[in-house]
Design goal:
The complex is a heterodimer of chains A (237) and B (72). Chain A has 237 residues and is mainly beta. Chain A is built from 1 helix and 19 strands. Chain B is 26% helix and 0% strand. Chains A and B meet through strand 1 and strand 9 of A and helix 2 of B.
Amino acid sequence: MSSSPSALLSATFYEPGHDHLVELVHQRDGEARRRLASLAVELFDPAGASVHRRAVDPNQEILDLDTVAAPLVGSHGRLMVLFDARYDERIFPYRPHHYAYLHRRGASAPPLYYAVNAVLGGVPDRIGATGINNFESYLFSSSFSGRYSVMLGNVSRFAPARAQVFSYHGGARSVEEVLLPPKAHREIALAPEREGHRLDRVEVKALFRLASYVVGRHAAGGELMLFDHMFAYVKPT
Amino acid sequence: MTTPALPPDADALLLCYCTGLTVGALREACRAGRWPLPGLERTGKLCTGCLGDLLHCLRALGAPAEDPAPDG
């Protein structure tokens, strides 16, 4: 067991007008509160420029993302938020997780509760996740009258990312190519229906893992109905 | 197209969150002709998130190219 801290970099996206609370450590034992060794939060505009970085007290359990990001978002519309955590693997033998509560203020739609996308680290060899995870997919199990999209972010320091976003409607596949400079992010719209077939799957393929979420919004009011990270592709055996 | 040199202040950056490799340790290993370091052979191939940066750094440091395909 290593004496140096383990590292995990997780990512989400912020849009204004939402209550967006991030549970920095998901406690499993009320009698034994677990703490990260350190945590830094950094926010990036869509072009990849850092707009804010701060250390967060590892004793803090909840981060009100709207309080941090609302003064910074300006005309960007969306910011990528990176959580750079260091932790002791004896305290988190699996790995820490950040979970978040997301709800547009005043909306009648129910709030969403999601796992923040772990992008770098989390020692996948130790937890047994040894499959390819830069091919990610999402299956749409139900349909609503709304707009779907994928949010993609490149968390690299130096390398641009070239990704392909495949959407499937029935047996038909369509693809969009996306190029993201370091720390840049984009929202890619997905057609909810093509030739009478509804959207049933989306895949993202890239040389390396990206921050990725699928998003569903109500057609009329734009309220979020879906905000979920994608899942690693599993090769059939 | 040439890969720009890595700035000296990049050395403290944690390049691989899975193996703990820093840019500085990679720079030193490449300078000494010792890359991949023992125990760090799977850098870039676990969560794969750092693979683009790893290849960028290896090019910038003049290391021989390696197979970018991750395990799995």
